[in-house]
Specification:
about 575 residues; alpha/beta; 6-stranded mixed β-sheet; 4-stranded mixed β-sheet; about 15% strand
């Protein structure tokens, strides 16, 4: 079972790692990796030279040979300087590879997360009632934090394994040669154990690795959970900042404090469990490491005191034993990092699997056979909710240029969902939709990027594509004349502006870009009657001049006066199989 887990972990790491080393940056990546490997091998060679130096230097001390003493100090200077240069460049090249790898993976996952509306589908899948745990939690953390940890830990741990293996191979022969034969009597016979120090190092480290595994095993699950609760806590704080005005108006500070306290309590609770698990491991690792300092001297002391070896050989044995023991103890020393790496790899693997699964699912546009047209047509359109229940079934609708249609119905009946299907972003739909060319949707909650007002107004187009005169006129026409002289002001416009101002800024976008078709979802719900009346007159003038049409979702009776047709979502009998049907009437 343990071998199967190791194979699965290796396969996950390989699957996540190999795309970068096969990417357009593969030659730079491979060159950096080869350089780091070469520096690690060179470092092991220098350690072998340092081990040989131990024998000569300490023998010179024992023999009081000053000439050899000073000569070896000079030799040590060269070796130490080479080790210093190697350490600096190994650090620099390793960090450079981590940075390049992280940058590539971040771009790679951002492109895939934002392609095919995967970011939107993930949230829909995650909050589906039938499967509340579907989809990875906090994709932002996966991209920002987990990728950083994965690249750093993968390079660090893999180079650590390589360094340990090469060091073991290089020093085990030295230790075997220096160990001599260990003899003991049993049953009247004398037995010899060649390479006794090697076997002792192996037994010492094997026992330490087994104990470490059982002591540190709980850390894998705890590290995974810690990353999750930390992300949940951070996410809720971001939401408090995003909805600060609404929370303040509702005097919801105590409730939000309770929610944050609950999430932070989960952070502390899990961290305390992780801390206790780490403490137990540190207890053992500290004991294991301290015992390893004197262990080779204890084992080799009888040969030294008997005169079989000199001080230099004893120190060389201790040095070689330390290198072999460090190599064999790599698992013991790095278990905490391995636990974090395992948790990070699992999280990224689930994220990768979710993105791949979404890539295999046809887009909403493909599912509904959506095409561009001069009119809006929906044929045999079926809409489902994320939990699989049918909202509308077999709907046939048609809107032509010049139509002014009001879409109405009870709250929660699926009016906005129907708009999402028209826009080809609702993945739980089927049928045929012909979407008019040059159409714009005004959502219930418009989005404005932080930055200059001109960027927020032109979004998602580049502000450079519009003149200042056109930008200012759009603001004036949307009843925001006070903002006309603030095009270069930077702010968080989604928080700075009131609800009504946000709706008017979204309408200013429409007036700026002048689309032929407008789909307005409660676009004026936060405006007063006078402003709403004036805004709708300008929207109608816009689509009429462009020979287009407007379809609105609204509850206010006054809005109906600007429309000539009504589509009403009406509850349907339970046995019909769908929750609602659409009735089409004239106004």
């Amino acid at each position: 079972m343990r071998l199967a887990n190791l194979k699965a972990q290796t396969a996950q790491v390989w699957k996540l790692s190999i795309p970068y080393f096969k990417s357009e940056e593969k030659w730079k990546a491979r060159a950096l990796l080869a350089s780091i490997v070469a520096l690690n091998l060179l470092g092991v060679y220098l350690l072998v030279l340092l081990n040989n130096w131990n024998q000569v230097f300490y023998d010179a001390l024992q023999n009081k040979d000053s000439a050899v003493f000073w000569q070896q100090l000079g030799r040590f200077t060269y070796i130490a300087f080479a080790l210093i240069v190697l350490a600096v460049y190994k650090f620099y090249l390793t960090q450079l590879l981590e940075m390049r790898w992280r940058a590539w993976m971040t771009t790679h996952y951002l492109v895939r997360w934002l392609s095919n509306q995967a970011f939107y589908k993930m949230e829909l899948a995650r909050f589906a009632k039938a499967n509340p745990d579907a989809g990875p939690d906090n994709p932002d953390q996966r991209i920002q934090e987990d990728l950083n940890q994965f690249t750093g830990l993968t390079i660090g741990l893999c180079m650590g394994v390589l360094n340990s293996v090469v060091t073991l191979v290089s020093f085990v022969g030295i230790l075997w040669k220096l160990s001599g034969d260990f003899s003991f009597h049993f049953g009247g016979s004398e037995y010899f154990v060649p390479g006794f120090m090697v076997w002792m190092a192996l037994l010492y480290c094997l026992a330490g690795s087994i104990i470490t595994f059982y002591i540190g095993r709980p850390q894998i699950k705890l590290n995974f959970q810690q990353q999750r609760v930390e992300a949940d806590f951070r996410h809720h704080m971001v939401r408090v900042r995003e909805y600060s005005e609404s929370i303040a108006l509702d005097h919801g500070e105590k409730v939000e404090r309770a929610h944050l306290d609950m999430r932070f309590a989960a952070v502390l609770s899990n961290y305390l469990r992780l801390l206790k698990a780490q403490k137990s491991l540190i207890w053992f690792n500290s004991f294991f490491g301290q015992a390893a300092v004197v262990f080779p001297f204890i084992v080799a002391a009888p040969r030294f005191f008997s005169g079989a070896i000199q001080l230099g050989t004893l120190m060389q044995i201790a040095s070689a034993f330390g290198r072999v023991q460090d190599s064999l103890s790599w698992f013991v020393d790095n278990y905490s990092s391995l636990a974090t790496w395992r948790a990070t790899t699992d999280r990224l693997t689930s994220f990768e699997e979710q993105i791949q699964a979404l890539a295999q699912v046809p887009s909403a546009q493909a599912a509904t056979d959506s095409v561009a047209s001069d009119s809006l047509e929906a044929r045999n359109l079926t809409l489902r909710l994320p939990d699989g229940s049918v909202l509308l079934d077999g709907v046939n609708l048609q809107a032509r240029p010049g139509d002014h249609i009001l879409l109405s119905g009870p709250s929660g009946s699926g009016k906005s969902t129907l708009f999402r299907a028209f826009a080809a972003i609702w993945p739980f739909s089927s049928g045929q939709i012909a979407l008019p060319a040059d159409a714009m949707f005004i959502p219930q909650r418009p989005y404005f990027p932080d930055g200059t007002l001109r960027s927020a107004l032109a979004y998602p187009s580049a502000a450079s594509g519009y003149t200042d005169t056109a930008l200012r006129q759009a603001l004036v026409d949307a009843l925001l004349p006070g903002l006309a002289d603030q095009l270069d002001m930077e702010a968080a416009w989604g928080q700075k502006l009131s609800g009504g101002e946000q709706q008017r800024l979204a309408i200013a976008r429409v007036l700026l870009k002048k689309p032929r078709w407008i789909f307005a979802d409660e676009a004026t719900s936060a405006l007063d009657a006078t402003a709403e009346n004036l805004i709708y007159k300008r929207l109608l003038a816009q689509v009429e001049s462009a020979q287009g049409a407007i379809i609105s979702i609204a509850h206010r009776p006054a809005v109906a006066a600007f429309h000539s047709k009504r589509w009403t979502l009406e509850p349907q009998a339970a046995e019909a199989g769908a929750r609602y049907q659409i009735a089409q009437t004239a106004l």
